[in-house]
Amino acid sequence: MPRPLPLFADRTEAGLKLLPLLAARGFDRPLVYALPRGGVPVALPIAQGLRALLDLLLVRKLGVPWQPELGFGAIAEGLAEPLLNQDIIAHTGLTEDMIAPVLAAENRELARRVALYLKGRHRQDPKGRIVILVDDGLATGITARAGIAALRKQGVARLVLAVPIAAPESIAEFQGLADEVITVETAPIHFGIGSFYQDFHQISDAEMLEILARAA
Q: In this structure, are strands 83-84 and 67-76 parallel, antiparallel, or unpaired?
């Protein structure tokens, strides 16, 4: 199976390609939320282009211990309980004793990121607002699902999920979770989201803080 040709030079270009699709909707004073870390450089040009406020929604994937890229669940700030995929848990044979240390480690990392990324930031109130939730791609979408659940809990009026690339089956699934799903391209994702980008480097803490400073 051949690898797909890159569609985007980097996450910034992906955001710029999403921007006109979102601008054409004419949303009234939307809030833009990014899923760190990868969704943040995608969301920055969108927020700037829409003259919208940019905020973060911190989430963490819960990865199967021997296959960390396979998420069996996710946690998000504002959600009291983890969002779990029982099908993957059953398929992989995960037990509570296997899940507990992963959950504890990711809760620690989530708390670390909250303290680092959100220190001194004024948080937006999405209640009754149109919210655009941005990530750098949608494969299984477990972190996006947790993000949507967290925003729904805060009473958003309309929730739009915006991603540069998404698997067709994920689009169908998330159309029942978000009010609208906007994507530049849909394609089978056999080699990971990164295969659609020329530059898909891991975003560091320092880069995150630099992007947030520019957004402010």
A: antiparallel
